[in-house]
Structure formats: structure tokens, C-alpha cells
Specification:
Elements: H1 2-16, H2 27-40, H3 42-71, H4 77-103, H5 107-122, H6 125-136, H7 138-185
Length: 186
């Protein structure tokens, strides 16, 4: 379960890291990005995203743990049942620890930092201004309003499709570790 906790936190960190320093951005481009951030209302979007991540975290952790246990060929039925029971017992604590970590996270600030780095890297000032103009339009405003639902649905679909791949990877890793431990015992 500790390994699952580290995996969940590492996954969150990997998804949220930015790529460039805001200090290196020319003033006109920085201003254009700031206007975009304001039009997108990122300060409000950050807490919404955290709430969605928090709401889904328990189910995703349970789904991953259960799938890994059910696919672990080294477990007999009694061991499998014991492991599933342990997940049920420890999951609330793990989910609370994960959500407590999320609560301390400044998602809005991070999103702004990431936007400065990524938008300055991939867009010219005029292009950022064009994007901002789009978000000021009625279609852009609709997109911004629907973005949390789109992101949530996209995440659910992605996780459902990635789940079997991740579970297979975890299973193979567990089998490899077990084989290595068996070799050390001999």
C-alpha cells in the first residue's frame, strides 16, 4: 500500500510539472500570457481541478490495487482475499493522505507557472493574443465553462484505457521482484 501511495504522488507530480522559468520571458509575452490567464480564470479553475482529482482518487486507487491483486498469479485464493481486505481497510487512510497532500497544493499557482513556461515556449506573443481573443468569444467562453467536465471525462477514459497497461506493468514488476528474491534465497 505504501508503494501505491508513492506511485499516486509521483504520478500527480509528473502530471503537474512545468518546463520553463517565467523569468526568462520577454515583458510583452509575459503580459500577453497574463491576460490569457485572466481570461481563462485559472485562479478558479485550479481548485475545481483539485476537487475533481480528489473525488476520483479513491476509486482510481482502489481500481488499480484490486486489478493488481486479482492479476497477481503468486497469490492463492486465501491470500488474494486477504490482500483485497487489506486494500479495503487501508484505502481510506491512503485516500485521506493523498487528499490532504492535494489540499496543500496551489493548483492555480502551478497552472499559471506552467502556462508561462509552456505558452512562451510554443507560441509567439501575437499567437497568445489570438488565443486570448478566442477565449473572449462566446465559443471560447463555452469552452472554458465546459473544460472541467471535458477534463474529467477525458481523465476517466484515459485511466480506463491505461489501467490494464499499468496493471500489467505492475504485475510483471512484482513477478520480476519475486524471482529476484527467490534467487537471493538460494
Amino acid at each position: 500500500m505504501q508503494q501505491l501511495k508513492r506511485y499516486a504522488l509521483a504520478l500527480l507530480a509528473a502530471c503537474l510539472l512545468g518546463s520553463a522559468q517565467a523569468d526568462e520571458i520577454p515583458a510583452d509575452k509575459r503580459q500577453a500570457i497574463q491576460e490569457l490567464i485572466e481570461v481563462m480564470n485559472l485562479k478558479a479553475l485550479g481548485p475545481q481541478m483539485l476537487a475533481q482529482i480528489s473525488a476520483q482518487s479513491g476509486a482510481l486507487m482502489k481500481q488499480g490495487a484490486v486489478a493488481a491483486i486479482e492479476q497477481d498469479k503468486r497469490l492463492n485464493p486465501a491470500q488474494r482475499q486477504a490482500a483485497l481486505s487489506k486494500v479495503e481497510q487501508e484505502l481510506p487512510e491512503l485516500e485521506k493522505a493523498f487528499n490532504d497532500s492535494l489540499a496543500k497544493f496551489d493548483m492555480g499557482g502551478l497552472m499559471q507557472e506552467v502556462m508561462y513556461g509552456t505558452y512562451s515556449k510554443y507560441f509567439e506573443t501575437a499567437e497568445i493574443q489570438d488565443i486570448t481573443a478566442f477565449y473572449r468569444s462566446s465559443t471560447g467562453q463555452k469552452m472554458l465553462a465546459k473544460m472541467p467536465q471535458i477534463m474529467q471525462e477525458s481523465m476517466q477514459i484515459s485511466m480506463a484505457r491505461m489501467g490494464p497497461v499499468v496493471n500489467d506493468m505492475v504485475q510483471k514488476t512484482l513477478e520480476r521482484q519475486s524471482a529476484q528474491q527467490q534467487k537471493k534465497k538460494k
